[in-house]
């Protein structure tokens, strides 16, 4: 996965206070590959990487993150930004009906979406009307009628029942759209959803027709519907539709397939328009409001790692980390009191065990993490609390009889005290190595 590759790239970089250009280049290469794998268009990738690099070079490292995590965090934030930041909701007209028009290539999923969107609106208490303006494709009107029936939403169509499977509907789509809106006004539908015709490729006739409909009905929202599987073609298609109809939002369909959503990024990036909904199947319910953050994760294939990074940043006490860094800079010894403080940090993260295992850099402590158990921390704390203040700062004096006393005090076997002292010594060594500063201060006291 990307996170594994990043870990490899950054293996030797822990402890740096600021990323160098060379450091970032390595990560940028991996991220570039991840974006291309996700089918983000090449020019978009190029521009994106340049922006990320600039930001990564300008930022001081967060103490809670290692450099790879830091770059991934920046990448994630930039992705979310491009995808529109927050979820953009439909804007309803002050005076109903709100007119929503769907545009896009043939097969993108407009007619299917019309049904889903109408059902979604209906479930929220709206009274939508579907309007069939695809008079180009044989059977298109019937298809919308079927979808409308499923959704329980009425359909306004030019010649109900007349069109046959092999016959193109006749009529002027602009007139149908206007008649549909008039019907909605008359019958008090508060939303009108206009399904339009598409072509296999972008062409002027299609675009002019879509623009004419848009202007005639004064559409409040024009949703550009695009198949997520379209890949590298997303950019040219989106640009053409943006210039042609000046859409207000994007709907990404067929996200149930292999597509990793690169089209979303390409489209949002070149048009600056937000992705508003996504479609994940042929069924009426396979439809959801689009979440930029989830899509960013999908594109990066990072899953919960990003959540983890946020949690680690939140739960790792920065002051504590700074205190430790200073301690070592001053060449002070790591004591059992420090060890206890570390334990408390670890306990905060204990609930994140599953996530920690996925963390870049976690590979070498996977086994310890697997054995991680909150109760072990309780026992460790009990043992440290059974030590005298002097023992805690000078653990070397803890001989056999002191070990027996500590074991008795904590209610554990003496072998556990031995184990703790061993781990403490390891932790002490590790902390010394990390004294150079920066990076996430590992898990020195991790039971295992
Ligand atoms: P239109 O030409 O833009 O109106 O596209 P349609 O709504 O007719 O959809 C074209 C095909 O894609 C149909 O077979 C739909 O069932 C299918 N389809 C639409 N949306 C999705 C989706 O989100 N996932 C999948 N798997 N298929 C979809
Ligand atoms: Mg259609």
3D architecture notes:
The chain is an alpha/beta fold. The protein has three domains: 2-86, SRP54, nucleotide-binding domain (Four Helix Bundle (Hemerythrin (Met), subunit A)), CATH 1.20.120; 98-289, P-loop containing nucleotide triphosphate hydrolases (Rossmann fold); 316-434, Signal recognition particle, SRP54 subunit, M-domain (434 Repressor (Amino-terminal Domain)), CATH 1.10.260. 54% of the residues lie in helices and 9% in strands. An eight-stranded mixed beta sheet has the order 3-2-4-1-5-6-7-8, with helices on both faces. Helix 6 links the parallel strand 2 (128-133) and strand 3 (155-156). Helix 2 (21-37) packs antiparallel against helix 3, helix 14 (336-350) packs antiparallel against helix 17 and helix 17 (374-385) packs across helix 19 (400-410). The two termini are 26 Å apart. Residues 104, 106-112, 198, 253-254, 256, 279-282, 286 line the site of guanosine-5'-diphosphate. It catalyses: GTP + H2O = GDP + phosphate + H(+). Residues 97-301 form the SRP54-type proteins GTP-binding domain.
């Amino acid at each position: 996965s990307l996170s594994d590759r990043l870990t490899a790239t950054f293996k030797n970089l822990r402890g740096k206070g600021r990323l160098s250009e060379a450091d970032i280049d390595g990560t940028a290469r991996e991220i570039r590959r991840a974006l291309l794998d996700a089918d983000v268009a090449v020019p978009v990738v190029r521009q994106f990487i340049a922006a990320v690099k600039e930001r990564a070079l300008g930022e001081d490292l967060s103490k809670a993150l290692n450099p790879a995590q830091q770059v991934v965090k920046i990448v994630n934030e930039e992705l979310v930004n491009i995808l529109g930041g927050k979820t953009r909701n439909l804007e309803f007209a002050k005076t109903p009906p709100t007119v929503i028009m769907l545009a896009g290539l043939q097969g993108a999923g407009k007619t299917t979406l019309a049904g889903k969107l109408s059902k979604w609106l209906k479930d929220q208490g709206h009274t939508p009307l579907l309007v069939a303006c695809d008079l180009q494709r044989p059977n298109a009107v019937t298809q919308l009628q079927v979808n409308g029936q499923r959704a329980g939403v009425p359909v306004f169509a030019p010649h109900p029942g007349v069109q046959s499977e092999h016959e193109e509907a006749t009529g002027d789509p602009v007139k149908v759209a206007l008649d549909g809106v008039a019907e909605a006004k008359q019958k008090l539908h508060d939303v009108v959803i206009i399904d339009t015709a598409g072509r296999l490729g972008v062409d002027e006739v299609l675009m002019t027709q879509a623009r004419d409909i848009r202007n005639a009905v004064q559409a409040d929202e024009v949703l550009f519907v695009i198949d997520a599987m379209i890949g590298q073609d997303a950019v040219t298609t989106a640009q053409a539709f943006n210039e042609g109809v000046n859409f207000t939002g994007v709907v990404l369909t067929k996200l149930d397939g292999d597509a990793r959503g690169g089209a979303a990024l390409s489209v949002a990036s070149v048009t600056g328009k937000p992705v508003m909904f996504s479609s994940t199947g042929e069924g009426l319910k396979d439809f959801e409001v689009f979440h930029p953050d989830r899509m960013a994760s999908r594109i990066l294939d990072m899953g919960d790692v990003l959540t983890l990074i946020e949690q680690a940043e939140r739960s790792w006490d920065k002051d504590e980390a700074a205190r430790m860094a200073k301690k070592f800079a001053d060449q002070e010894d790591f004591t059992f009191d420090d060890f206890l403080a570390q334990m408390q940090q670890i306990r905060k993260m204990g609930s994140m065990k599953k996530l920690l295992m996925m963390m870049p850099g976690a590979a070498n402590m996977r086994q310890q993490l697997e054995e991680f158990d909150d109760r072990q921390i309780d026992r460790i704390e009990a043992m440290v609390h059974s030590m005298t203040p002097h023992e805690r700062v000078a653990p070397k004096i803890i001989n056999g009889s002191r070990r027996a006393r500590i074991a008795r005090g904590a209610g554990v076997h003496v072998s556990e005290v031995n184990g703790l002292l061993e781990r403490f010594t390891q932790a002490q060594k590790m902390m010394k190595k990390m004294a150079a500063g920066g990076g996430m201060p590992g898990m020195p006291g991790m039971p295992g």
